[in-house]
Amino acid sequence: MANLLLRVRPTLPQVGLSSSARRENVRGVFSVSQPERVRDRTVVLVDDVMTTGATLSACAAALKRAGASRVLALSLGRATPQFPDTAASV
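Above: the chain's sequence. Below: its structure in token form.
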């Protein structure tokens, strides 16, 4: 379902942001263009690389708000940044 998720405002690149900054950067940034296509359905999100999961979580939240019954995520790769996010606690 191409073009189903829309970015409603520009964001900073996620590279170099802490986990909390990544979540804030994408909070509320996605919208579903055709809610009737996801209502009461299971939706599978596919991402090339997941680092913190902030973008996938923001997309899933938009899909759930649009009425998706369940959202699953598939990532082809997993980046392994330093956890926990020590930059925020220093």
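Helices lie at 19-26, 54-65.
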